[in-house]
Amino acid sequence: MRARPQVLTNVLPGRFRGLSVKLIAMIVVVILGAGIAIYVPSIANFRLNWLDDRLRVGVVAARVLDAVPDVMSLPRSLTDRLLTAAGADAIVYRREGQSQLIELADAPTPREAVTADMRQRDPLTVIVGAFDTMLSGGGRTLRIVGSGDADESLVELLMLERPLYVEMLAYSRNILILSFVIAGITAFVLYVFVSQLFIRPVERLTQNILAFRQAPEDGTLIITPTSRRDEIGILERELAAMEAEIYSMLRQRRHLADLGLAVAKINHDLRNTLTSAQLLSDQVVALDDPKIQRLAPRLVNTLDKAIGFAQSVLDYGRESATPPQPRPVDLHALVEDAAFDAGLAGHPSVVFANEVPADLHVNVDAGQMTRVLVNLVKNAREALEAAGSRVPAPAIAVTAGETGEGVTISVSDNGPGLPPRARANLFVAFEGSARAGGTGLGLAIARELTEGHGGRLILADVPTGTRFDILLPASALVR
């Protein structure tokens, strides 16, 4: 039986949605973010240095003013050169309560003024001043105030803010271009490195998983791991091992399915043949020949075992994989029905005791749980019948009660117990039978059905007899 190709619900992402694009975008964003973090103090420092340069020229001009007794006697050409060198429209020098002023002959009309006090150099003031200049557009008059060389002297420069604004704008543009260049180069280098080291291997793994999922029976799709020793290498080797196991299991499942169909057909024909043979044996039993009368019971018994074996195999092959549909069930009544189906009603020698509390209700699939109990009780009955006189008072008891983890249902008997061979393969189909001619399917089916309810079926360790415990989770308890 071949696995049906599955429709892929996941496909590889497009060119602009893969890991590589996300990686490049993340690198660019991180570098630009770092550039912004560097730009803020650098633009503030650029403005501060620019103002310091202008202030130093203003201080030199103030020295000239301080050396001349009468500022008005200075030639206009000299004062204009001093102002032009400082880039100022006017310079004011204050000392000991006196002020001296020089200004350009054709000084522009004063505009809205903004003061840059160079005596305040804390980072917040410097950064706020830089962004204030950038956002102003450069249309104001800039008043630069700073200390002169002499004690308590003060120098003020009045100039247009436009030159500072233009130079800061050019500096910002250069920083932005440089940031993009660095981000692009770094992103490309990191992309090449990370792509070879991580992204390409991940894409290879992703493509292999998608392809293998679509055709898991194609052995050529099993990934060939590389010699890497890191996490990617471990992932490749584990994926290769997992795909090899899936490939083997699918082949085995197909072989078992084909074999199961063949066995089912053989058993069906064999059961019909054995039924016909049983009918003939019934007619033979009616003959008066003493030899036939002595051999006929053995023949009938052998045919019954063969028919039972064939029927068990057919039942196991038809075992439904339908999930249980739990409903509140009266466990006491469920055990009574199971005992009746197991052939204990009116049994001549085996005493059955239903010790389940009458008010105990569980949330289980009634049909499946009945089958579990029937298999366990029937196995106990057959063990007691096979023991014969070795058990003087054969008895079977079913008990149940709440535990800290949920509900425990116990099926026990006082028979001779299970032989070592049966214990070794207790829940293995066709191997776990405790009696000759048995198939061992009853316990295998009971365990599967119990696990389908989220529980466990275990063999309890008791000094005499045999006891099986059905351990159901707390969700099975109806309160």
Automatic annotation (TrEMBL):
Residues 265-476 form the Histidine kinase domain. SUPFAM superfamilies: ATPase domain of HSP90 chaperone/DNA topoisomerase II/histidine kinase (SSF55874). Signal peptide: none annotated. InterPro entries: 2C_sensor_his_kinase (IPR050980), HATPase_C_sf (IPR036890), HATPase_dom (IPR003594), His_kinase_dom (IPR005467), Sig_transdc_His_kin-like_C (IPR004358). One of its GO terms (molecular function) is protein histidine kinase activity. The chain crosses the membrane at residues 21-40, 175-194. It is an enzyme of class 2 (transferase). It comes from the Bacteria. Keywords: ATP-binding, Kinase, Membrane, Nucleotide-binding, Transferase, Transmembrane, Transmembrane helix. It catalyses: ATP + protein L-histidine = ADP + protein N-phospho-L-histidine. Its EC number is 2.7.13.3. Pfam families: HATPase_c. CDD domains: HATPase. This is histidine kinase. It comes from Devosia geojensis.
